[in-house]
Amino acid sequence: MIIVRDVFQAKYGKGGDLVALFKEAKDNWTVQYSPRVLTDASGQFFTVVTEEQYEDLAEFDQKSAEIFSTPEFGDWFERMTKLVESGRREFYNIEM
Questions:
Q1: How much is the CA Rg of the chain, to the nearest whole Å?
Q2: 3-state secondary structure of 81
Q3: 69 Cβ contact list (under 8 Å, min separation 6)
Q4: What's residue 79's pLDDT?
């Protein structure tokens, strides 16, 4: 099992807007996206993290392809990029 975290640095003051956009995707897309959304309690301001769990990287790749091919993704992604300064993806093995 793996955990995949996408860590976004939202533009100043836009963290809440980014969270709302992720909630919109979770509530409205036919393909399930990001069951967990985390925000900073300390550290760099306006950090938003999405977190998902997969059996392996193959399942992650399959799910990513499904999400990227949905009709709503293009418009949503364009709106998302306007809120984000930078981001990164982290992969973790679940050991216990």
A1: 13
A2: helix
A3: none
A4: 97
pLDDT at residue 34 above 80? no
Does 3.30.70.100 match the CATH number of domain 2-93? yes
H/E element holding 76? helix 73-81
Q: Print the SS3 string covering 7-72.
A: EEEECCCCHHHHHHHHHHHHHHCCCCCCCEEEECCCCCCCEEEEEEEECCHHHHHHHHHHHHCCCC
Model confidence at 33: pLDDT above 80: no
Q: What is the phi/psi pair of residue 11, to 5°?
A: -60, 155
Taking each helix axis from N to C end, the angle separating 15-28 and 73-81, rounded to the nearest 10 degrees, works out to 170
Token pair of 4 as six digits: 């995949």
Nearest to 3 by CA among 57, 42, 40, 41: 57
Residue 89's pLDDT is what? 97
